[in-house]
């Protein structure tokens, strides 16, 4: 690399994608700088995947205690202490932040714990001086977006949910995507009376509609009050609480209003105007197949390019980019068949095509559905169910889509994703021996097509 630059690669943003790119490049002997003005690990570690999953675990205990009675367990009435959960979560996140710092340090990358701004196509201003870099990587992620309307200043975003002073007694959650459903489940499980307000007809609208109906039914059965085709017109503050006025003329009192209405790229005041980098109307950065922006020395990946806003995708993009810039450029990101899970309650996970998509893209499909009560519920008489679905192309016998609603859906679908990326056929699913008794074995024992 030419020595006229201070760095070969300067990464802006130390989230999942940025840290992976910096570590990989630095470990390969490349001179790397990385800047982050918040906690290391980005959204996923600090205000996303990790603390969210801890909260999901916490919220499930209410049901587990109840089911335990039918297995012979009894104890004094369980109580929940929010500060204990929040503070233990904070300790765990601090531990992860330290691990990230150690990983960066041991890779040899220089960390700047400050905000970085682009001065030109090869220059970053950070920590009161300018550094030059042959390549700059923008991995600055996204930020929750709350639309403006009367009273929108009272709405919280997911960012604030992780550090609440106290748990509310009543909550309104707005949105029908990942974050809205996950937090509705968390709040409900922790004993908060929870309303979910969604403007559309069907939650999680890009997923398989039959499966999403099951998610909705399951959430309602657990106590979340779901209002579809409904919007919030205004919020008024009343004493310590809020009045939420709905489009159907309904009105809800809520101690907390959470808006989970999408995230936008974190590109404000980044100095993009000093370069040729182009953005879309929503602020996300436009890149080509090699993550190159309109400025040949500047690259971008992860949530800021608004392709697939998932941590494992950003990590994969980072590895492919470092290989492209400094390696043998042999890898590509496989954007098809990306498995994903929504940690709603019930949990939902999916890989591949929905039934609706498969019917459009293939001449003929066979659909296999299994819906049953999990064994864990059999003694308690609980009404949780598990639904599994396989979408198979008739001509090729290829499994095109694999979907599941219910306990451990994410764990099970991860394995199904490997089978699908290996091109598994339904016949191969059928000839695989099940693990008994398990829920997952249903995926290899579905013999009769539903449609
Ligand atoms: P999503 O894009 O998933 O959902 C946003 C929701 O808000 C949609 O239901 C949308 O409605 C609704 N909405 C948007 N604008 C408005 C508005 N002005 N008024 C009312 N409703 C509105 O965003 P999230 O914030 O939930 O999550 C962001 C991304 O983060 C996800 O897409 C996902 O990629 C990632 N994520 C992944 C998780 C995981 O892997 N488990 C967990 C959390 C986040 P409509 O459907 O009508 O457009």
Structural features, described:
- By secondary structure, the protein is of the alpha/beta class.
- It folds into three domains: 7-144 and 264-326, FAD/NAD(P)-binding domain, CATH 3.50.50.60; 152-261, FAD/NAD(P)-binding domain, CATH 3.50.50; 346-444, Enolase-like, domain 1 (2-Layer Sandwich).
- Helix content is 31%, strand content 23%.
- The protein is built from eleven helices and 21 strands.
- The protein has helices at residues 16-27, 42-47, 49-70, 82-107, 158-161, 178-189, 209-222, 311-326, 355-361, 409-421, 426-431, and strands spanning 7-12, 32-35, 110-112, 117-120, 123-126, 129-138, 142-144, 170-174, 193-197, 225-227, 232-238, 241-246, 251-254, 256-259, 263-265, 298-300, 340-342, 348-352, 365-372, 386-393, 399-405.
- The strands form five sheets. Strands 1, 2, 3, 4, 5, 6 and 16 form a seven-stranded mixed β-sheet that branches. It has a five-stranded antiparallel β-sheet with strand order 17-18-21-20-19, sandwiched between helices.
- A hairpin with a 2-residue loop joins strand 5 and strand 6 (129-138).
- Helix 1 packs parallel to helix 8.
- It starts with 6 loop residues before the first strand and ends in a 20-residue tail after the last helix.
- Residues 147, 174-180, 182, 199-200, 205, 260-263, 309-310, 340-343 line the site of NADPH dihydro-nicotinamide-adenine-dinucleotide phosphate (NDP).
